[in-house]
Write a structure and sequence with these properties.
The complex is a heterodimer. Helices cover about 80% and strands about 5% of the residues of chain A. Chain A contains 13 helices and two strands, in the order αββαααααααααααα. The chains are: A mainly alpha, B mainly alpha.
Chain lengths: ~300, ~300
């Protein structure tokens, strides 16, 4: 009798759960799952426009598009590798930079809101109309004297590469492994991208830091923990679940803005080869997912869930 | 004797800690300098936008360019105002469209995603993990790549050339669900259990306990979604001029090229200013919430 009642309660609860998910799930099914399936269909066929009846016709061609992408297409594999490498460089740097910034921005100092807004600026300025206007502005500024400016930039570039090469040579001769050096050099070269890419992550981490109960810090202080200990024993474990969120977001963000997507877009809308474009996006999605699973699995093992 | 020793050790310990504190002060200064440098990088485009909006035309074309304005004027804004009054559709219509699309898109997304995230984070039911991995998978697909299927689906539903074409897909983005779930997972179970013991329904628990406690999360999501919706020109789905959002009209002015450089500078300022203001409002609210929330274990 008691057991029966318990079961029905459980069922009731899971029913409530399903009802809560339902509105989101319907939209998800219609807009996303369906478009995923369609992308899969396009990948396995050649799409042509039906001029007589309107709409489109799909000719199934099997794995022809995949074969073309991997064996024949001139730049796909190279672009894919570059995108994945960029992503792998970005993810740890963005995550740690964002956490670091969030901790600084979480401290109390005058003008904090303003400083936070400044670090969120790249996200806001990354909209189509603003980009167009900025380009127009740049065009206006060096329109008549473009050649002169280009010359100046070229000469400046030369001297820059010279000094960086000199530094790299020095480090190599000091015996630093080329792999680590390469990573550092690339990271330094991408520093602006990294700062610009961490706007949302900083906000995520600020929200995460805000949701740590203040009593924990109080206890740590009473027990005489140093700032260093407090960070590693309180702050870090508590924001750990959000590090995964942040990593996932960074991977997704870095991927959706990557060269592979640009390539897929241009293949679809400039060359009208929708099948090939779908293949590009499918392959790169699968690779991103594999990376995501590996990275998240590694972090999840070390994650501590409060409760 | 032994006691004295420990006291001595304690003193030494304390002394050492003081030194460390000093060192961390120096570290703090260094950090703030670093933050300042990074901040300059980020704020420079905004400084340029603000200054460009105030520059008269001759200064906009000056070479070598100056960042700061010499003779600030509001000419660009008055030009923009004249241009707006000349437009075929009354300008208030564009503003109304933007409010509808951005408002419904943002609020709907936050509510729908939070509703779905609550059982995913706090209930146990069959199919939960599969559902969640599907969400993550869907985030991987870039919007640009699925444009064609999206268009086909929108026309299949018959909501082409309608506000709904922009609002409905925004409701079921995977990102919001993912974010809300991560934050709700951190809520202590005991909060919900105590409410359940007091006889609250799931609906009640969600609105009166879960949502207020994850306010930082959904405000973050709101900022994020506002930014997405605000930047949407809707040119793919909206054909009628009466339905197009502000962003579209402003982009048309920017596309005027060299002749409208002044007005374009003013437009850029407006497009950037609104999300920044929204961000500042939301951020200050995030701070207020956390001072009042708390758990006593």
């Amino acid at each position: 009798m008691r057991k029966k009642k318990k079961l029905s309660l459980l069922q009731k609860r899971s029913l409530a759960g399903y009802l809560f998910i339902l509105p989101w799930f319907l939209g998800f099914l219609v807009f996303y799952v369906r478009s995923l399936i369609m992308t899969g269909q396009f990948a396995l066929s050649r799409l042509s426009i039906d001029a007589v009846n309107g709409g489109y016709v799909l000719d199934p061609v099997g794995l022809e598009n995949f074969r073309y992408a991997l064996r024949v297409h001139a730049s796909f594999k190279q672009v894919l590798t570059t995108s994945v490498m960029d992503m792998l460089i970005d993810v740890p740097l963005v995550t740690f930079f964002a956490l670091f910034m969030a901790m600084l921005l979480n401290k109390k100092f005058p003008g904090r809101g303003l400083v936070r807004a400044i670090f969120f600026l790249p996200v806001i300025l990354n909209s189509g109309a603003i980009q167009a206007a900025m380009e127009l502005g740049a065009m206006m500024m060096n329109g008549g004297v473009a050649s002169q400016a280009a010359e100046v930039a070229a000469s400046a570039g030369e001297s820059m590469t010279f000094s960086i090469d000199y530094l790299i040579d020095m480090f190599v001769s000091l015996g630093l492994p080329a792999g680590i050096l390469g990573y550092i050099v690339t990271a330094v070269a991408r520093i602006n991208d990294i700062i610009a890419a961490s706007g949302v992550q900083i906000i995520l981490f600020i929200a995460a830091l805000q949701s740590i109960p203040g009593s924990m810090y109080e206890v740590a202080r009473i027990e005489g923990a140093t700032g260093y200990e407090t960070f590693w024993r309180v702050t870090f474990p508590m924001v750990m679940p959000h590090i995964i969120t942040c990593v996932v977001y960074t991977i997704v963000d870095s991927f959706t803005g990557s060269e592979v997507v640009d390539l897929a877009y241009s293949v679809a809308f400039d060359e009208f080869n929708y099948g090939l474009s779908s293949v590009f996006s499918l392959i790169s999605t699968v690779i991103t997912c594999i990376i995501l699973v590996i990275v998240c699995g590694a972090i999840q093992k070390r994650t501590f869930y409060y409760n | 004797m032994a006691e004295k020793d420990t006291i001595k050790r304690k003193r030494r310990f304390l002394h050492k800690r003081e030194k460390q504190l000093n060192r961390s002060m120096a570290g703090n200064t260094l950090l703030f300098v670093l933050m300042f440098i990074c901040g300059i990088f980020m704020v420079l485009p905004l400084v340029m936008i603000v200054n460009n909006a105030l520059k008269p035309l001759d200064e906009l074309y000056q070479f070598p360019p100056r960042i700061f304005v010499r003779n600030p004027t509001l000419e660009n804004f008055s030009d923009l105002f004249v241009l707006m009054n000349d437009s075929w559709i009354p300008f208030s219509r564009y503003i109304l469209n933007t409010i509808i699309i951005t408002g419904f898109g943002m609020v709907g997304h936050v509510v729908v995603a939070s509703l779905a995230a609550y059982p995913l984070a706090k209930h146990r039911f069959p199919g939960k993990n599969i559902l969640f991995s599907m969400v993550v998978l869907s985030m991987m697909f870039s919007w640009t790549v699925t444009q064609i299927p999206q268009y086909l689906i929108i026309s299949w539903m018959g909501i082409n050339n309608n506000y709904l074409a922009l609002i409905l897909p925004a409701w079921s983005f995977g990102m919001g669900l993912y974010l809300m779930k991560q934050f709700m997972e951190q809520l202590p179970d005991s909060l919900m259990e105590s409410a359940k013991l007091d006889g609250a329904t799931e609906w009640h628990i969600f609105w009166t306990i879960v949502m207020p406690n994850v306010k930082p999360a959904w405000l973050t999501l709101a900022i994020f979604q506002f930014q997405q919706m605000w930047g949407n020109t809707g040119s793919m789905f909206l054909r009628d001029e009466q339905l197009k959002p502000l962003q579209f009209a402003l982009q048309q002015i920017t596309a005027g090229g060299v002749a409208r450089a002044g007005a374009a500078a003013a437009v850029t300022f407006i497009i950037a200013a609104v999300p920044i203001i929204f961000f500042l409002i939301c951020q200050s609210n995030i701070l207020e919430t956390m001072t009042t929330s708390g758990m006593k274990d």
